[in-house]
Specification:
Blueprint: E1 3-7, H1 9-18, H2 25-34, E2 39-43, H3 53-62, E3 66-71, H4 75-84, E4 88-91, H5 111-123, E5 127-132, H6 136-145, E6 149-153, H7 155-162, H8 167-182, E7 186-190, H9 198-201, E8 207-212, H10 214-223, H11 225-245
Parallel strand pairs: 1-2, 1-8, 2-3, 3-4, 4-5, 5-6, 6-7, 7-8
The chain binds pyridoxine-5'-phosphate.
């Protein structure tokens, strides 16, 4: 089955907008878990625009599922991750001005930094996933570095899906997933996925995890968080079993 990681950063965004205690990020995590999500995903950004350090510590201690911490390769954030010891870290590129993570990690340029961080995380038993663009070069590099998994950036695919011309981007994801699996990497995907464009993604070979934030929280505004999770879980389960039966 494909694991569902739910990114709850936007719950913290709402809380930070008023600088108050509501909505409570832990309460959101509990509801997300009750509705059947497999991982809680949060991004501790260097500018702390949504998730705060105390959220990460509190979630790690109190959630029932697994914490996936998205983070940049910054010394400060690495030090926090080593104290928190989440089940998994997903290393992402980060720019101060961006609205969201815009592209995959530059695995070539950042190789030395990734290797240093990886050896520290390995000692603590933390799984490491790299958020990368779906290219053969990035995947081969990720495998050579020795990370556990890659998360394929589905942003381009999601944009092309909205324009109904998505076959090429889907094919790129397909080839990337196949190669990653052949090289022994766990295959994850995320960014821009929603209740429609997730369907073809569920057929990617060896896909083990998707991480979804914006569309789930947007849906939750209208139907509630619990039902928003149930709905996407059902879609993933149906699409997955359809692929298995073919
Ligand atoms: N995966 C990664 C690595 C991300 O950085 C993000 C955005 O924080 C997501 C998944 C979720 O993207 P979205 O909010 O578009 O679903």
């Amino acid at each position: 089955m494909i694991r569902l990681g739910v990114n709850i950063d936007h719950v913290a965004t709402l809380r930070q907008a008023r600088g108050e205690r509501e909505p409570n990020v832990f309460e959101a995590a509990c509801m997300v878990e009750d509705a059947g999500a497999d991982n809680i995903t949060v991004h501790l950004r260097e500018d702390r625009r949504h998730i705060q350090d105390y959220d990460v510590y509190y979630l790690k201690r109190n959630i029932r599922t697994h914490l996936n911490l998205e983070m940049a390769l910054s010394k400060e954030i690495i030090a926090i991750a080593l104290k928190v010891v989440p089940a998994q870290v997903t290393l992402v590129p980060e720019k101060r001005q961006e609205l969201t993570t815009e592209g995959g990690l530059d695995v070539i340029k950042e190789q030395a930094k990734i290797e240093r961080a990886l050896s520290q995380f390995k000692k603590k038993g933390i799984k490491v996933s790299l958020f990368i663009n779906p290219t053969g070069l990035c995947i081969k590099k990720a495998a050579a570095i020795g990370v556990d998994a890659i998360e394929l950036h589905t942003g381009r695919y999601a944009e092309s899906f909205a324009k109904v011309k998505y076959k090429f981007q889907l094919e790129k994801l397909h080839c990337a997933a196949q190669l990653a699996n052949q090289l022994g990497l766990g295959v994850h995907a995320g960014h821009g996925l929603n209740y429609e464009n997730i369907k073809p993604v569920c057929a990617l070979p060896s896909l083990r995890e998707v991480n979804i934030g914006h569309s789930i929280i947007s849906k939750a505004v209208f139907i509630g968080l619990f039902d928003a999770i149930k709905k996407i879980k059902n879609i993933i389960a149906c699409e997955y079993s359809l692929c298995q039966s073919q």
